[in-house]
Amino acid sequence: MNPAVPTWAGVAASAALVLLAVAVAWHGRLRLARDIAIAATRAGVQLAAVGAVLLLVFQHTGLVGASGWLALMVLVAGQVAARRARGLPRALPIATAAIAAGAAATLGALLALGVIAAQARVVIPVGGMVVSGAMQATALVLIRLRDEARTARPAIEARLSLGLPATDAFAPYLRTTLRTALIPAVDSTKTVGLISLPGAMTGLILAGVDPFTAIRYQIVVMYMLLAAAALASLTAGRLAEHALFDDAHRLRPLTTEPRRERV
Amino acid sequence: MAPDELFALDQVTVRRGRAVLLDEVTCRLSAGVCTALMGPSGAGKSTLLRLLNRLEEPTAGQVRLHGRPLADGDVLALRRRVGLVGQQPVLLTDHVPDELRVGRPDLAEGQARTLLEQVGLPAAMLTRQTAGLSGGEAQRLCLARALAVGPEVLLLDEPTSALDAASAKAVEQTVRRLVAAGLTVILASHNIAQARRIADEVLVLRAGRPVAHGAAADIDYLKEES
Predict the structure, then answer these.
(1) Nearest-by-CA chain A residue for B101
(2) Which of A162, A254, A255 best tests the B interface by mutation, with the highest count of B CBs <10 A?
(3) Is the dihedral angle over the CA atoms A122, A123, A124, A126 positive or is it negative?
(4) Main-chain dihedrals φ then ψ at residue B210, nearest 5 degrees
(5) How many CB atoms lie within 10 A of CB A83?
(6) B151 touches chain A (CB under 8 A)
(7) Which residues of B touch A248 (CB under 8 A)?
(8) Mean pLDDT score, A220-233
(9) Measured distance CA(B88)–CA(B92) in Å, rounded
(10) Which of A65, A169, B105, B190 is the most exposed place for a label (fewest CB within 10 A)?
(11) Which listed CATH number (1.10.274.10, 3.40.190.10, 3.90.1300.10, 3.40.50.300) goes with B32-46+75-201+209-222?
(12) Tens digit of pLDDT per residue, chain B (226 long)?
């Protein structure tokens, strides 16, 4: 057995770890045993399905299939980010456009510069990381801007009442929001390798690539995630600003209260 | 148009969802005086004020300023002519001089002193941080910040309701001085005693409709609780 890649028997054996987690939950009366079992089963089924589809895409559809796959990821990520920002006008198109912009620009640059190969087996996993990073940043921006538009309404309207255009009246809030949304990407870039060995690098090392080669990929990944988060945040911020104000520089009423977000 | 007419509202309705905030309001508001918009909570006082600097838009009807429809002009220029100060003093910066410069970045120090004097605050306050100001001082600083832009009308939305009696009195005195100096003030208030002290004209609203309008001395609403 090659220890780098587990066999199906090995995967089945690792299910014992799920039983351990279930046992801990049951023993501690955490009322989580059922959730853990469902989550573990779902993970197995989802990943098996994804693996089968990826195999098809890699073998038969090439870059066209990869583009379709990425587009689907962007749509799903847009839904997830928009759901977090419920109550913000036009949240779904804004989130989707921001994630698409961040992912397309970053991935496009990497492909144009020849940093990564234009092959489905490269574009899909790298694209997945980019979309995921862009999604997190977009969700943070939209949640925060929606909340600012609610809580800072008196201050925003005080600025508007002094004749400031909407862009100027909202600038302090947009600036703080973008800073906050980029902190996770900046911090993980700062601490990479010190606090955790990141996914791409770990994967390559497990697959037998020597660490010094693996870090080259990881460096590219970190830079790309920074760019994707920054571009997606900026796009989301600008689009949300347009959605929050009307042509007469008025902050629109946000009617629906945000529901408690499910984790 | 009457010579002293400032704002004219014609059949103005404001709806938000199913709620009717103002219901076919037709009225004229005069220049150079202090007009109090009176009425219970939910009568539409704040909505009417916000219509006048276009923070709110009529669902139907028209608002005119000096005979020209508000919707035809530049909204940013309008808001510099028609300032608004809200119920709670909302300070936007950390230092008093910065606060006065939010709407007018080129304000000179001498002008800043004059503005503080106009609202009854000492010029020494220019060295202070906004965080340590009392509620009354903060509200008068908000007035000064609005005046810095050079408005011809000041809209005040319950400007003393968050203040103690002494601070409220200081704000009222400031308002009277500004009106005496030629500024038009339109004030939303549910405080009858206050309207008696500072208003020249009164417009009483109830459930989004005007029920009385005229010189303060002639309005029965002001006599109700005397």
Answers:
(1) A162
(2) A162
(3) positive
(4) -75, 130
(5) 15
(6) no
(7) 54, 57, 75
(8) 94
(9) 12
(10) B105
(11) 3.40.50.300
(12) 666 889 999 999 999 888 999 999 999 999 999 999 999 988 999 999 999 999 999 999 999 999 999 999 999 999 999 999 988 899 999 999 999 999 999 999 999 999 999 898 999 999 999 998 998 899 999 999 999 999 999 999 998 887 888 888 888 999 999 999 999 999 999 888 888 899 999 999 999 999 989 888 887 777 765 4
Residue spans of the domains in chain B: they are: 32-46+75-201+209-222
Q: How many CA atoms within 13 Å lie on the side-chain side of A140?
A: 21
Do strands B5-16 and B19-30 pair parallel, antiparallel, or not at all (unpaired)? antiparallel
* B145–A248 C-beta distance less than 8 A: no
Mean pLDDT of the region A211-234: 92
Q: Compute the distance between CA of residue B134 and CA of residue A124 in angstroms, rounded to an integer.
A: 59
Residue type, A175: R
Q: Are B85 and B139 in contact (CB under 8 A)?
A: yes
Confidence of residue A201 (pLDDT cuts 50, 70, 90): confident
What is this model's ipTM?
Answer: 0.92
Question: Can you give the length of chain A in residues?
Answer: 263
What three-state secondary structure class fits B57? Answer: coil
Give the C-alpha separation, A42 to A50, whole Å. Answer: 12
Chain A to chain B Cβ contacts (< 8 Å): 54
* Closest among A244, A229, A220, A135 to A179, alpha carbons compared: A229
pLDDT at B2: 64
